[in-house]
Design a protein that fits this description.
ABC transporter involved in vitamin B12 uptake, BtuC; about 325 residues
């Protein structure tokens, strides 16, 4: 086999993530044999499917050179809006689902507009969005006849089955994730729109001179991210059987970590859906495995934070040609010694 072909096919970052996933399953399986049961593994996905769904489309945002830390707040706003639209406004549950996705799109469009058209830093805009949408979720709670503590429950069985059902033994949540991953991959890697996203991240000015409407492209990535957050909020509401305004508040760190760990550059211009999907599963299984071996849930952010720091540091080091050359020289000297 050609040496370059081997490097391209077998030494890609996605291959490393697959290997990491296999090692996770083996290690956690040895520590707790229940982890190796197929039913347990598939069932565990329910606990982190939201991270998987949202991170797919936050990838689009980071590739343009942006940042999105408001997705968790949109999950809560979507969830409680869905409940109020169904219970208090009297909408059909599926019409309420459509309206909830539309709300997510509006949230993304508002933040995307300020990032794309006013060039305010994405971190600042989405941080503001995080507080804004969390506050709006609390406002929506006041429109409900149910208390914020209780949440809104009593949904139709057809809606609950969205997250708890299965097809041929495969949970519906897994199927939803696979469909969105395939759609995201095709959109980002197989269409002209996807190429525009990469060009905006590589050099926005050059993309504008080429005739690309960069403002609309960048804004659209935030809309997609907002819609993915609303889908995650709907799935989470279905799974829990309750709509709450505080759902999703702990998702920001795992989402950004999944995107960066998946190979997307935090500086823009580089990334992919497959890497993000694999990284999200790696993080999800790690969180679930740590809980199964007895780690308290309040400490789960520690390994996630370490992963984020390592991923960003590793990306910075590998992109520094001088530093990489120095490292190679050191290794050559060690080999000769």
């Amino acid at each position: 086999m050609n040496k370059e072909l081997f490097k391209n096919k077998c030494l890609r970052w996605e291959s490393f993530l697959v290997l990491t996933l296999i090692l996770e399953i083996i290690i956690f399986g040895l520590l707790n044999p229940k982890f190796l049961q197929a039913k347990v593994l598939l069932g565990s996905i329910n606990d982190f499917i939201c991270i998987c769904i949202i991170s797919l489309f936050v990838t689009f945002v980071l590739i343009t050179g942006g940042m999105d830390i408001q997705a968790g707040s949109i999950v809560g706003l979507t969830s409680i809006s869905l409940g109020v639209l169904w219970q208090d406004a009297g909408l059909n549950i599926w019409m309420a689902v459509i309206m909830a996705i539309f709300i997510g799109a509006i949230c993304g469009a508002v933040s995307g507009f300020f990032v794309a058209f006013t060039r305010v830093q994405a971190m600042v805009v989405t941080l503001g969005g995080q507080f804004l949408y969390s506050g709006l979720a609390l406002v929506v709670v006041n429109l409900s006849s149910s208390s914020a503590f209780e949440g809104i429950s009593g949904y139709p069985k057809s809606f609950i089955a969205l997250a708890t059902g299965n097809i041929l033994g495969i949970p519906n949540q897994v199927i939803i994730f696979i469909i969105l991953a395939v759609a995201g991959y095709m959109l980002l890697h197989k269409t002209k729109y996807g190429r525009y996203i990469f060009l905006c991240g590589i050099n926005r000015e050059a993309a504008e001179y080429s005739g690309i409407r960069t403002k609309w492209v960048i804004m659209s990535t935030y809309i997609l991210s907002g819609m993915s957050a609303s889908v995650a909020g709907i799935v989470l509401t279905s799974y829990l059987g309750s709509a709450r305004a505080d759902l999703g508040k702990e998702l920001t760190l795992p989402i950004i970590t999944a995107v960066v760990l998946g190979g997307t550059s935090n500086l823009g211009g580089k990334g992919g859906v497959i890497g993000t999907a694999l990284a999200a599963i790696v993080i999800g299984f790690m969180r679930f495995g740590l809980v199964m071996i007895g780690l308290s849930t309040q400490y789960l952010d520690i390994p996630i934070g370490l992963l984020l720091i390592i991923a960003v540091a590793g990306r910075t080091i590998t992109s520094n040609t001088k530093l990489m050359k120095m490292i190679h020289e050191i290794f050559h000297k060690i080999k000769r010694a």
